[in-house]
Structures
1.
Amino acid sequence: MEDRYTTSGRGQLYSSILETIGDTPCVRLNHIAPSHVSMYVKVESFNPLSSVKDRLALSMIEAAEREGRLAPGQTVVEATSGNTGIGLAMVCAAKGYPLVITMADSFSIERRRLMRFLGAKVVLTPRAEKGIGMYRKAQALAEQHGWFFARQFESRDNADIHESTTGREIAADFAQTGLDYWVTGYGTGGTVVGVARVLRAQLPDCKIILSEPHNAALVGSGQPQARNADDSPAGSHPVWEPHVIQGWTPDFIPKVLQEGIDNQSFDRVLPVDGNEGMQWASRLAAEEGILTGVSGGSTLATAMDVAQDAPAGSVMLVMLPDTGERYLSTPLFESIPAEMNDEEQALADS
């Protein structure tokens, strides 16, 4: 057996699943990337519950514990499109907190089932009420029952965890090669804001590219977000429209992302069609063996556009926030049959 297949373990034992969060790999694309650039993807599905939001979930709960904002056994409540809720369900299960999630009923069935499987309660809100609806439901439940409202869209612990983990991982992995472009989308804005703090200091020549849905270009519009006194959104942003990129761009600009806008944490903001993102997610799986969801595919689509004008030899990194298995009931897998097609039947009969 070749040496590269020989392993010797991690050299440590873990006292909790929570200790396995982070240190996700950056993997080179060998078949679908343009030949004049070196393109890598940061595969956040290597986190224990398969998304970048595992980092945020742990950060919010442990910061609240340290600061006395979360009492032992207190119920946690949060509004989420799914991945933060799944991460919180893992963290709360491991630490013994009851969890209630509010989520618009437009998000994938896999998400709600995973959260319930992990012991959480999931309260669905009408899709017509958009992200604001699920946010206000979580806020109301917290006030009514005295629960801890995690508030991922405003929490300072959001960007902080990406500064202390994700950003440092990227800086360390590209310390020798350098990094010319880092491409990401946004949901709460924590990833781009936290990582940008590190890249601006340690890899200052790196261009940071932010992507958002072409039909919900909130940041690109330049129009401000109305906020309440507690920094929560006062209502939907005027240019938002429904889009297919689950987990990206709620119908408001989160307070966390506002730091990035105010501090110019990104060099460009580019719109992307989520349908194009699904095509790139499909190619990434079939031609590179890397499984990601619509958000990862859309980030990759944006990176491919950036690569067209990138100088030869450029090094690029693309964020892949989660796994494709979270989208089995969505249009991403619509063309994938469960039964054998004619070619497969012919093989079976041969």
2.
Amino acid sequence: MKIPELKIRGLKPCLPIVQGGMGVGVSMWKLASAVANNGGVGVISGVEPGFSLSGYLRNKKEANKEALAYNINKARQASPSGVIGVNIMTALNDFEEMVQTAVREKIDIVFSGAGLPLKLPDLVRDSITRIAPIVSSAKAASVICKHWDRKYSYLPDAIVVEGPRAGGHLGFTLEQLRNIAEYPLTRLVEEVILAIKPFEDKYRRNIPVIAGGGIYDGNDAAEVLAKGASAVQMATRFVATYECDVDQKFKDQYINAQKEDVVIIKSPVGLPGRAIRNAYLKDVEAGIKKPFKCLSNCLKTCNPAQSPYCIAEALINAQQGNLLNGFAFAGDNVYRVNKMSYVKDIITEVMEQIRKA
């Protein structure tokens, strides 16, 4: 099998590897630029990037826009010729403002999931920015393509299909996540490719499909590439790297995690999520409410009055190494991470495995 080339409307990364966007503060400019410098697509998370700024508690929205612009510029300085993207959740209350900020900073690609980004083409109009929705089913891919075609005469520049083995918030029900063997990523990729073909035929152009969720090594990658994916998305694998932007204690959670530590939680934002169980999550499971003061109701689907904890606060604490008051999201392959690595070494190893596979 020939290793596919990832081409996203004029962009051509050297390698078919996209680093998944991880919030809060997990994938920022250091990790994104390291991946881009080694031939992949580096992705900055657009979820609460401004938490470390002095003005964050006064005006979260302004701090987040400022921090996103800063991270994009720092990544571009560190990787002038690399491909840099941002991941901005549709569920964010400031979704449109964050996308517009990224567009002003001339980001290469906006990836967007956690909902259907139906207005996204309007937000990047007359810009160089490409857009790539993140979906968990062929149905979602079809709905987005149909809406964008009808309303904007626009197709996705790429589509990320994320399977149920991914970390963080997931586009699957709890029942589906109890039976993940019924939703193999290889099949999801084939179904999405089939669903978008009529739109590709109409516009006479290819929509590259990027497959993520449970991709740990080159053997995993080769399976979905053989089914027609143009690239793979990897996130969990890049956390325990020297270039990742989180505290070492966060990375140690990954290195020390066992298979039985990886659990599905019910997030305050109304979506299930995959995380590493720790004392904080055990308290939540036991019904212990973590008191908090909501600063801005950052997610559309969150009801602060009924939430047992503030997920933004918990993830910020974890990013800074305070795991007593937070927790780490992770993919189901996190137990395979057992040491610190450099981004370059991971990418080299994965590509060698793909070639051999």
3.
Amino acid sequence: MTTTVKLNPEQEEIRSVARGFLNARFPAERVRELMRTGTGFEESSWKEIADLGWTGIALPEERGGAGYGVVERCLLLEEMGRVLYGGPYLSSAVLAADALALAATEADGTELLEAILDGSTRATLVAAGDLLGEADQAGAVRAAQAGEEYRLSGSGGLTLDAETAQILIVLAELEDGRSGLFAVDSSAPGIALGHGAMIDETRKTAFVEFDDVPARRLDDGADTAAAMAHVLDRGAIALAAEMVGGAQKAIDMTVAYLKEREQFGGPIGRFQALKHRLADIAVAIDAAREGVYSAADAVDSGELDHVPLAAAAAKSAAGDGYCLATAEAIQLHGGIGFTEEHDIGLYYKRALSGQPMLGSSVDHRERIAVGLDV
């Protein structure tokens, strides 16, 4: 890995521990077993992840977190991407936890956040559409107030881990046009989950519909649009980090194969044309990694004005890089790369499913163009 991203000794240790843990718990055969289950993960490993403090690694200690930053969380997500981890980390420990920490009031969100961080409760963020990264997506779910109670109706769109989450954290539009944040028990009457044919079997998603569902408001009555836009930017950075890890694993698998596969009296990796293709992939992955950690550092250093465009650049580069790396990897593996039995296909499917999530590369390039007024 050639990159200008430099880690301090503690960060190197975090990455090393994460890689060792995830490689031991989620070898390829175990990932295939889990993707055929209804949940995509096992409770015991999720509890281990919570016990390691990973669920709150990017949150301050006063909110129950470990007191590190988004950079350290990206290190974990890179390693999760390498093994195609399919558990609720992105949905519960990133999107839902960040929404509670940044957009909910301390009185209303603390108890639930603590339960998420200790692993006893799993939650997911319902932000309408396909979590496209825009706060105005709240308009697809509407919140009506009747006295002290709120009722939600509308389409929450495609949602990560909706079927296994115990709590839905919902961004909804209020009657006055502002947005609010609400907690909904996933077993409440009026919630319907729809399942389509998803290309990525390692990650579980469902379409969520609300029909007059009781909800508890989590914010203080102010418009949550700005806070939730930041939550979704942090989510885009997290997903980009995961994609970089998957892309790196794809190229590592391909390099290993090209060294082993022999043709015309030697390994095919010696051919210059193949080296050029690998070099193009490596450059794309390095560019994406640079973008991820630049965006993460902007969050951690408090440069919030830079975060939206930095997050857009990171997600755009990671989405393109992951799709390029896995598509090329399939080609470079030859006939075996197209078979269901080979693991490279799982990475390609993860790349395709992650591309539109939290904003596609096209969406984010448009955000950059608008932000730079070009």
